[in-house]
Amino acid sequence: MAAIATVPNYTPSLWVRLCHAIPRLDLTLQTRDSVFSPDSWEYQQTLLVLSSFSAIALVLSLLVVLSFLIHYCCCHRGEGGRDAEEEEEDDDASGGHGYSGKKGRGICCVTWVSIAAVTLCCVAIGVGFYGNSEANDGMYQLTSSLLTANYTLASIDLLVLDTVAGLQQSVSGPLTSMEEVFGGHKPALVPTRSCRRLSERVVSLLSNLTLGRGLVPIVDGFYRPNGSESIVGALTPAPPSVAPTLSPSANSIPAPFSPGWAANTLMVNEDYRWLSYVLLLLLDLVVCFFILLGLAKQARWLLILMTVLAWLALFLSWGSLGLETATVVALSDFCFDPNTFVLNSTHFNSRTSTDILDYYLTCSRKMSSPFQQILTQSQRALSSIHSHLSSLERDALPRFPKAEKPLREVQQILNVTEGNFHQLVALLNCRGLNKDYVDSLKGLCYDGMEGLLYLSLYSFLSALAFTAILCSLPGAWRSFHSDSEDYEDSDSESEDPFTSHQARRQTATGSQRGALPPFYSYQGAGWTPPFSSAPPLPTPNVSSNGNPGYENLPLSDRQSPPPSYSPSMLTGYGGSQSHSNPSHSRNLYSH
Predict the structure, then answer these.
(1) Distance separating alpha carbons of residues 156 and 433, to the nearest angstrom
(2) What CA–CA distance (Å, rounded) separates 480 from 473?
(3) 3-state SS class at 315
(4) Residue 15's closest CA among 441, 454, 332?
(5) CB of 120 within 8 A of CB of 236?
(6) Please, are residues 253 and 233 in contact by the beta-carbon 8 Å criterion?
(7) For the residues 546-559, what does the mean pLDDT come to?
(8) C-alpha–C-alpha distance, residues 484 and 476, integer Å
(9) Residue 535 near residue 573 (C-beta atoms within 8 A)
C-alpha cells in the first residue's frame, strides 16, 4: 500500500484533537486505542462506555429531585402545625402581604430559584438553536461536495462509454464499409485495418480505466456498464444544484461506495435530525414560557402540568447528551486521520486500487497519475488513427470515390472521440475530486463538529436547568392559594353578591388574622353615628300622634350601605344642626 500522506488544505481542529485524546475504555474497563473503526465491537464498546456517563448523570439528577420532593412532602408536613402561629405573626408584621416573614422569604427564594433555572434553560435553548444550525450547515456542505464528486464520476463514466461506443460504431460500420470498397487494393487496405486495430486497442484501454465501475462485454462484442458495480448508482450526470434526489434503498451500503447514495442517505437523515432537534428545542421553550407565566399568575394547575413536561424534557436532555457524546467522539476519531479509514475500508476500496484512492485523497505533486500510462497509450492510438485517415483521404479517395462517405463518418467519430478524450483527461486529474474531498471534510469536521459540541452544551445546560426547575417548582406551587379556598373563605365571611373577588380575598385574609369589630355596630343608647350632623332620613311612616316622623331603626340595621355625603352637603348640614335640638337626634337612635 502506498504511503499515507496528509490531506492538503485540511488540518484537524483543536476540538477534534481534544476529543480524540479522550481515554477509551471498553465494558471490561480495559484501555483501547482511538482508531476509528465503527465495524469493530471493541470500538463500539468504548462509545457505549462514554454514553453511559449521561445515564449516570440522569440517575444523579433523579436522586436530587427525589430528595427535594421528600423534603417538601415530609418535612413541611411535620412543621405545618408548629409554623402556624409563626405565619400569623409574620402576616401581621408584613401588613397582610405575607412576604416579609419566614414563609414569605421561603416563597421568594423558591420563586427566584425557578426564575434563574428558567433563564438558564433559555440560554441553553439559544445555544441549541445555534448548534443545530451549524451542524446543518456542515452536513449541507458535506452532501453538496459528495454530489459534486458524484457528478464528476458520472461524467467520467459517460465520457468513457461515449468514447467506447463511438469507436465500436466506427469499427462495425464505416471501417467495415471501407474495407469492402478497397477490396484487394493493399496500399489502402493496410491503413484501414490499422485503424480498426487501433480503435479496438483504445476500446480495450478505456475499458480498463475504472474508478470502481466495470465495463463487461455482451454477446455481440459491444460493452455495457456493469450496473451492479456502478459507482454513481442510478444518478445521471447533472450539476449538484439540479441533481435528482433519490430515496435511499433499503439495502446496505453498496459495494463499491457510491457518493450519490451517501449524499441522498445523509440528506434524508439530516432532515430528520434537524426536525427532531427543532421539536425538542420548541418543547423546552414552551415549558420555560409557561413556567414563567404560571409563576406570574400563581396558577397552580399550570405549574403542575409544566412539572410533568419538565420530567419529559429532563429525560430527553440527558438521552440526547449521551448520543451526542458518542457521535462527537466517533467523529473526532474519523476527522483526526480520515485517509486511514478510507484506504482501509472495504466499502471504499472494493474494485478500486489503493494507489488510485491515495492519489485522489492526497493529490501530491510527487505522485503520478495511475491512469497516466492508459491515457498516454490511448492518445497515441488516436493520433495514429488520425494519421491513417489523413493518408487515406490523400491517396485513396481519388481512386475510390465510394469510400468518401464512410471515411467522413470515421473522421467525425474520431473528432468527437478526441474531444471526449480531452475532457476525460481533465476530469481524471486529482485536483477536482480532491477539492470535493477536502470540502466535505471541512464541512463535516469543522462546522459539523462545532455544531455537535454546541448541541452537547445545550443538552447539558438544559438538563441542569430542568433538574433545578423540578426541585423548586413543588415548593412554588405549594405556597400558592387556590381559588377555591379563597372563594370558600369569602363566602363564609360575606354574602353580599356585589362584593368584588378582591374584596372577598381581603375579607378572607382579614378573617385569618382575627375578626375586627364592624364599623357600624350598635353599642347602646349613648352611641352616635360618625356624622352626627346628618339629619334623620324621612319615611312615609307616621308617628303615634299622627304627625309625620322619622324612622326609628338604627342605620346598622337597615341592611344597606351607609349614605355618602359631599363636603358641601356636610357644610350645609353642619350649619343647620347648630340651630336644631340635639336631644331630638339622640332620641332617634335611642329606641
Answers:
(1) 12
(2) 11
(3) helix
(4) 332
(5) no
(6) no
(7) 48
(8) 18
(9) yes
> CA-based angle 493:494:498, to the nearest 5?
155
Of residues 145 and 578, more confidence is placed in 145
The rounded distance, in Å, linking the Cα atoms of 372 and 429 is 10
> What are the DSSP calls for 52-71, one per residue?
HHHHHHHHHHHHHHHHHHHI
Q: What is the DSSP string of 378-394?
A: HHHHHHHHHHHHHHHHH
Query: 13-41 as b/e, with b when 16 or more CB fall inside 10 Å?
Result: bebbeebbeeebebeeeeeeebbbbeeee
List CB contacts of 125: < 8 A, sequence separation 6 or more. Answer: 281, 284, 285, 288, 458, 462
**How many angstroms separate the CA atoms of 172 and 222, rounded?**
10
Which segments of 437-544 are extended strands (E)? 538-542
Cell numbers at residue 113, please? 430559584
Contact 269, 288 (CB under 8 A): no
Backbone Cα Rg of the chain: 46
Residue 34, pLDDT score = 86
Q: What average pLDDT does the structure give for the chain?
A: 74
Rounded Cα–Cα distance for residues 132 and 343 (Å): 31
**What gap in Å lies between CA 283 and CA 134, rounded to an integer?**
20
- What per-residue confidence (pLDDT) applies to 176? 85
For 373-430, write each residue's pLDDT tens digit: 889 999 999 999 989 888 888 888 888 888 888 889 888 988 999 999 999 999 999 8
Task: Indicate if the pLDDT at residue 3 is higher than 50.
Answer: no
Q: Give pLDDT, residue 256.
A: 54
The span from the CA of 260 to the CA of 263, in Å, is: 5
Element counts in the chain: helices (H) and strands (E): 20, 6
Alpha carbon distance 237, 223 (integer Å): 20
pLDDT in tens, 459-513: 999 999 999 988 887 766 666 655 444 444 444 444 444 444 444 445 444 444 4
DSSP one-letter string for 561-575:
PPP---HHHHHHHHH
Contacts of 425 (CB under 8 A, 6+ apart): 375
Alpha-carbon distance of 392 to 384, in angstroms, equals 12
Residues β-bridged to residue 215: 225
**C-alpha cell read off for 451:** 455544531
In eight-state DSSP terms, residue 495 is -
Residue identified by cell 374584596 is: 503
**What is d(CA 436, CA 240) in angstroms, rounded to the nearest whole number?**
12
- 207 is written with which cell numbers? 475499458
Q: Which residue has the cell 457521535?
A: 327
Instruction: Give the distance, in angstroms, between the CA of residue 111 and the centroid of all CA atoms in the same chain.
Output: 30
Helix (H, G, I), strand (E, B) or coil at 343: helix
Q: In angstroms, rounded to a whole number, what is the distance separating the alpha carbons of residues 329 and 309?
A: 30
- Residues 6 or more apart whose CB falls under 8 angstroms from that of 249 comprise 261
- In our burial notation (b when 16+ CB lie closer than 10 A, e otherwise), range 249-267 reads eeeeebebbbbbbbbbbbb
Report pTM.
Answer: 0.70
One-letter amino acid at 525 equals: A
